[in-house]
Amino acid sequence: MSTLALRTRPAWDIDRWVRDFFGPATSEDWFGGAFTPATEIVRDGDDAVVRVELPGVDVEKDVNVDLDRGYLVIHGERRDERAEDKDGRTLREMRYGSFRRSFKLPAHVTEDAISASYDKGVLSVRVAGAHRGAETKRIAIDNK
């Protein structure tokens, strides 16, 4: 599947939502890596939860979650090797690549507010309080 095919309309919709809330992602997110994992961001009360599909990845060795100058940065490498014997021949397919996703965080978020876990091929990063204070507040207009 080509990289272009992976960037379908729903992915752009999610990324647009992320840009609207967190600010623009860095250009590396779109063009820098050979592998772009599927990502979803959901609101859980005042928290934001970023879920990244990383099946078969050794998260202890190959994945990092960083807070870098106000950005949540998820980066690493995916290594996948498959072998199949068919008609006395061995077919090997290797899929791998580095990835990097970064999201601008609200100014009040500190490293203490970020936690990460990995379960059944999904990395979940919780940003506690990311949505705190994100409600729209109406300003009265003084009509003289």
UniProtKB/TrEMBL annotation:
SHSP domain residues: 29-144
SUPFAM superfamilies associated with the record: HSP20-like chaperones (SSF49764)
Pfam families: HSP20 (PF00011)
PANTHER family: HEAT-SHOCK PROTEIN 20 FAMILY MEMBER
Family affiliation: Belongs to the small heat shock protein (HSP20) family.
Name used for this protein in its record: Heat-shock protein Hsp20
Organism: Mycolicibacterium holsaticum
